[in-house]
């Protein structure tokens, strides 16, 4: 039976790839998208979620509007969150639910449901504080000794450090950190074979990486990092990522630090297998 999957997301170009991966994978049944501010503001991320579902032929999937906050990555993802190309996806007002995210989780989680959280953790922390228990929670976020917002803080944790603390301390998550996801490079060759509507979203992101090539991305100028798709791949095929337990916490700026909380951290994968899985599922 297909695994029920809810994605908490801030689309976002790599979120778009992750959502498409899930929508095109028969191993999972997409139960809903819950939206959060992050790469851009909530109005954009919610509208992008609806447009992506329309493009993927999945307007049956509910979209639940979650927490608002300041958008922080329009330099990477464009002002509209999708590289200035959101308008190339079908406009859609379908699927929007009036209820709040915690209620949606309360009504829809079953013992088999997997939640993949690929944006700031505001919705997830609110649900945990509201008494929700996630049977399996996979979180893209954090970096062990590295960051992409500050030297040690990764974007999703940096955007709401208090929420990240709640999730690490009581959410029992599997963390999929930057150390792993920054190796997930959709290069020119990869992008040439994916659904052209998706690859068309990547221009701003590729330009951003090219501009920052001296610091970080010399060999990646022509690609994007599809962080969020790595976490969703683990939701689709459990065991894709090799994990190990660490003792961690989150500091006030959102950096993963040593601590007393046991956290499962994804450390490695079979890269050729994962990249060909993604290429096949996302092909145009
Ligand atoms: C994370 O931050 C966002 O910009 C991406 O969508 C991803 O979820 C990577 O640090
Ligand atoms: Ca994201």
What is the straight-line distance between the termini?
26 Å
Q: Count the helices. How many?
A: 14
Level of helix content?
25-40%
**CATH-defined superfamily:** Ribonucleoside hydrolase-like
Q: What small molecules does the structure contain?
A: beta-D-ribofuranose, calcium ion
What is the mean predicted local confidence, pLDDT? 95
Low-confidence stretches: none
Provide structural commentary:
The chain has about 280 residues and is of the alpha/beta class. Helices cover about 40% and strands about 20% of the residues. The chain has one domain: Ribonucleoside hydrolase-like (Inosine-uridine Nucleoside N-ribohydrolase, Chain A, Alpha-Beta Complex). It contains 14 helices and twelve strands. The strands form two sheets. It has a ten-stranded mixed β-sheet with strand order 4-3-2-1-5-6-7-12-10-11, with helices on both faces. The chain has a two-stranded antiparallel sheet with strand order 8-9. Calcium ion binds next to loops.
């Amino acid at each position: 039976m297909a695994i029920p999957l809810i994605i908490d997301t801030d689309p976002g170009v790599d979120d778009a790839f992750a959502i498409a991966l899930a929508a095109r994978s028969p191993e999972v049944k997409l139960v809903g998208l819950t939206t959060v501010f992050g790469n851009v503001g909530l109005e954009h991320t919610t509208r992008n979620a609806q447009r992506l579902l329309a493009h993927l032929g999945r307007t049956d999937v509910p979209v639940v509007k979650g927490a608002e906050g300041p958008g922080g990555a329009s330099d990477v993802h464009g002002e509209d969150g999708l590289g200035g190309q959101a308008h190339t996806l079908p406009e859609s007002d379908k699927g929007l639910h009036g209820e709040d995210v915690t209620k949606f989780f309360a009504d829809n989680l079953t013992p088999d449901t997997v939640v993949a959280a690929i944006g700031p953790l505001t919705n997830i922390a609110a649900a945990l504080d509201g008494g929700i228990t996630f049977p399996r929670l996979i979180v893209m976020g954090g970096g062990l000794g590295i960051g992409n917002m500050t030297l040690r803080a990764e974007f999703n944790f940096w955007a709401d450090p208090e929420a990240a603390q709640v999730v690490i301390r009581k959410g029992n998550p599997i963390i999929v950190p930057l150390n792993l996801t920054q190796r997930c490079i959709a290069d020119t060759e990869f992008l040439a074979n994916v659904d052209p509507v998706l690859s068309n979203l990547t221009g701003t992101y590729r330009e951003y990486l090219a501009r920052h090539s001296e610091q970080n991305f010399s060999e990646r100028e022509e690609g994007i990092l599809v962080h969020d798709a790595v976490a969703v791949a683990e939701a689709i095929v459990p065991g894709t990522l090799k994990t190990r337990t660490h003792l961690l916490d989150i500091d006030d700026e959102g950096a993963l630090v040593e601590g007393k909380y046991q956290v499962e951290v994804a450390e490695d994968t079979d890269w050729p297998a994962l990249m060909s899985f993604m290429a096949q599922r996302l092909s145009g």
